[in-house]
Fold this sequence. Notes:
The complex is a heterodimer. By secondary structure, chain A is of the alpha/beta class. Helix content of chain A is 30%, strand content 22%. Chain A has one domain: Vaccinia Virus protein VP39 (Rossmann fold), CATH 3.40.50. Chain A is globular. In chain B, the strands form 4 sheets. An 8-stranded mixed β-sheet of chain B has the order 1-4-8-5-11-12-13-14, with helices on both faces. In chain B, strands 2-3 form a two-stranded antiparallel ribbon. Chain B has a two-stranded parallel sheet with strand order 6-7. In chain B, helix 5 packs antiparallel against helix 6 and helix 5 packs antiparallel against helix 9. The N and C termini of chain B lie far apart (52 Å). The chains are: A alpha/beta, B alpha/beta. The interface between A and B is medium-sized, with 21 and 27 residues.
Amino acid sequence: xxxxxxxxxxxxxxxxxxxxFWSPRWSSGAKVLDVGCGDGExxxxxxxxxxxxxxxxxxxxEGVNECVAKGLAVIQGxxxxxxxxxxxxxxxxxxLSQTLQATRHPRVxxxxxxxxxxxxxxxxxxxxxxxxxxxxxxAGHMPRTDILPFSWYDTPNIHHCTIKDFRQLCTxxxxxxxxxxxxxxxGSPLRLNAPxxxxxxxxxxxxxxxxxxS
Amino acid sequence: MGDMGxxxxxxxxxxxxxxxxxxxxxxxxxxxxxxxxxxxLDAGVELTPFQIAYKTYGTLNSARSNAVLICHALTGDQHVxxxxxVTKKSGWWETMVGPGKPIDTERYFVICPNVxxxxxGTTGPSSTDPxxxxxxxxxxxxxxxxxxxxxxxxxxxxxxxxxxxxxxxxSMGGMQVLQWAASYPQRVFCALPIACATRHSAQNIAFHxxxxxxxxxxxxxxxxxxxxxxxxPRRGLAVARMGAHITYLSDAAxxxxxxxxxxxxxxxxxxxxxxxxxxxYLRHQGISFVERFDANSYLYLTRAMDYFDLAADYNGVLxxxxxxxxxxxxxxxxxxxxxxxxxxxxxxxxxxxAASARVSFAExxxxxxxxxxxxxxxxxxxxxxxxxxxxxxxxxxxxxx
Lengths: 214, 401
């Protein structure tokens, strides 16, 4: 994936690859909001290669200024506070890449995403991965993996969840899970026809395509 | 005031000459609007006849699609990127506008008009009222930001420019940018409101009132009739400028620049002389300002800013001002700007998001305060350049025209 790492973003660059997963189905002119867009590379690629009408929100000032200097429509803000400003049905797709676990109110964020967009694409690190489970069980310390490299005392991730947890949240708030896939740390999909328990154990991250139940 | 008045501010000789810039501006183009084209003012009266002094830079392309309107701030004028005829100093935004600059005059056709109510050639209180043959003074109607923009739209009609590629400006200029986008969305392809707000805050109105009272307290003001009586409220205007100038800077910038350093001395004089460098600097700012600015214009333009409240025109809902706007916005604020803080810009962004407008927003870290938009700020230049490049592509402008 030709996505360059952004030193300013709280999102690990390899994680951003996951949002490409369903991009082929995006038509030219589709309105896309990338929440936590980092240095804007995904938006730029989507705009240039697929002709989408992309907008972004980014927390870091450096990331925002870089995006605007690239000619992208990006504002400084964050998922917890700024999604509420957007009107209903403003976008076709709202992307939240590797950020849900760092928000204060993941449920509210998810509800807003599906209020302002007809579809949402959410990717997150899977806390149910076997390495995570084994580190806590046998080594007795907070897990640190390729995709979760932070120490417990300086992690931005305050709301970890497993694939199973996320599915339960989607059911609770009445969201349709159109598609889902588990990926390894580098963004390659695991077996697509595997059962949920398999993904929850072997997927290092997951991507969900969600839509509103009509 | 110390000895400032004694040494520098008693001369009224120049006062009789300088307002003539208001009728016959140097180094400027003038558009005349006769009785057939009156300016309808928010105050409910028509201003006619009137004139607009403006400057242009660059060349209008054959499609007439590369025009950029620069809106100046309270004490600015049309001399945005060329030597000022009165002060002989370089243009007030030469860092931003010019060949190869972010607003590139080799690519864009830049128009900068002097606003209605100002004193550099566009009709204002120091202009001659043709019906009386005397300066308007306080008989000039109170004007608003929307009146300024309406007059600018008439100038564009006069120039045969239907649609602007961009409208840009900071502070009061940014207010005009927002008003442009709200009043004439189809005529504005992209908008750059910088260091501004959709309404003037109570604190800012308060600062302006102090400035106005300083002018009116000067006995030379003569109830606004100083041009007729051959006086000039220089002290009052200088004090107004000194007070306002502090609000354009920041505590950190003043400290960095001056600290508590003494001016040409090592010990305090135990007098009210300008012992400190910062005092000397402010006095200089005041003195040099009165050489180029008219006291009544200062009253009228500060009033226009005070009255500005864009949401009020749309039942208090700012987003309605930008409903279905096709304009692309780039909103910029500065961290140390306490006159138009980032929260003001964020309010603009919220409204634009609510209107589903295409908006970019960047806050630039600087300790230079409100004036940062006029100064050397590489990040500001990169953002403006990038934003205009992106919009230029969408507009189909060639990289260099």
